[in-house]
Amino acid sequence: MKAIILVGGYGTRLRPLTLTVPKPMVEFGNQPMITHQIEALAEAGVTDIVLAVSYKAEVMENLLEEYKARFGINITCSKEEEPLGTAGPLKLAESVLKKDDSPFFVLNSDVICDYPFKDLIKFHQKHGAAGTIVATKVDEPSKYGVIVHDRDTPDLIDRFVEKPVEFVGNRINAGMYILNPSVLDLIELKPTSIEKETFPILVEQKQLYSFDLEGYWMDVGQPKDFLTGTCLFLSSLSRRKPEKMCNEKFVHQGNVLVDPSAKIHPNALIGPNVVIGPGVVIGDGARIQRSVILANSQVKDHAWVKSTIVGWNSTIGKWARTEGCTVLGDDVEIKNEIYVNGAKVLPHKSIGVNVEKESIIM
Ligand code: GDD
Ligand code: MG
């Protein structure tokens, strides 16, 4: 089987992290976001994966060899001269996606869940139509593509509305599809939106079904959702693979994932819902909850870090306090005793005065 992962897009909503690293490469649960997807695709029997890239292609290419060796699959980059949206890249990769008659998976690179690929194949084969969209239910459907079902045929989609202004329903497109190669004949090689241009045609032809996802789901393409998604991912991981979770003395209430190379003072208090990356150093009495600390950062003694994403190579000073969905870019310093609430701090900045309200520090 084959798959294409849409890894283009500028990831602007996940700045300042995406100023340094493309969105699919930002570490989620201590692995680049797309690694989770590639792992799940390989497990479901996918042998050919195309990464559809529209910018920063070099960064992705460096990883291809690693993925080939690690997962034993063919993996290639398909580079766009100009961003081709969410459908154009499928046409560009037609030679791979049409190399046999089997259907192919399409994934948005920023969605996390317990990927249901094997069940999805079975479901798709059973209804026999051209496409299946994975669906989930959310409280705020206006940020997503909304699916409305046909009254008479179970799971057949009757309407697909991308980012609706008015409420149409709360079952949404989870950003994962399985499509027959014939769908490629509906797409032209130009910037095209699969949600706005291709799905409506398939709906009209009664060729698009939806498959309800079980368990958690999140689009982690913005900081608030990245943190919520991290909590959901950690709860799921501690149920599925409890041996991966940290249970040292400094863990408080569980769901803590720590890279083995991190150094954590035994008097720190970490958790619940914390991810600590490689090379991180956590000081005496530091308190961390509901946060992600990316590679090679430091949280000094007695700092309190809550609902924060600490970008790579950053430092949070002694007795400093961060919260309110604060995001630090690469190489940021928060000085001793400083309070930061809801700030997005661009790379290479040093913060020496309190930031009390949501703001962007450039
Ligand atoms: N190759 C390539 N080229 N990829 C692109 C391009 C492009 O020009 N533009 C966007 N992408 C990729 C993004 O990297 C992401 O993986 C995916 O396409 C979707 O783009 P987002 O920008 O994340 O879209 P969204 O989150 O607003 O909405 C989409 O995802 C929702 C689920 O999370 C839509 O598919 C919605 O219908 C869906 O509900
Ligand atoms: Mg998204």
Automatic annotation (TrEMBL):
Residues 253-361 form the Mannose-1-phosphate guanyltransferase C-terminal domain. Its EC number is 2.7.7.13. InterPro entries: GMPPB_C (IPR056729), GMPPB_N (IPR045233), Mannose-1P_guanyltransferase (IPR050486), NTP_transferase_dom (IPR005835), Nucleotide-diphossugar_trans (IPR029044). Its main location: cytoplasm. It is an enzyme of class 2 (transferase). Residues 2-230 form the Nucleotidyl transferase domain. The lineage of its organism: Eukaryota, Fungi, Dikarya, Ascomycota, Saccharomycotina. CDD domains: M1P_guanylylT_B_like_N (cd06425). This is Mannose-1-phosphate guanyltransferase. Involved in cell wall synthesis where it is required for glycosylation. Involved in cell cycle progression through cell-size checkpoint. Belongs to the transferase hexapeptide repeat family. GO terms for cellular component: cytoplasm. Pathway: Nucleotide-sugar biosynthesis; GDP-alpha-D-mannose biosynthesis; GDP-alpha-D-mannose from alpha-D-mannose 1-phosphate (GTP route): step 1/1. GO terms for molecular function: GTP binding; mannose-1-phosphate guanylyltransferase (GTP) activity. The keyword GTP-binding applies. It is found in: Cytoplasm. It catalyses: alpha-D-mannose 1-phosphate + GTP + H(+) = GDP-alpha-D-mannose + diphosphate. Keywords: Cell cycle, Cytoplasm, GTP-binding, Nucleotide-binding, Transferase. It holds the Pfam family GMPPB_C. GO terms for biological process: cell wall mannoprotein biosynthetic process; GDP-mannose biosynthetic process.
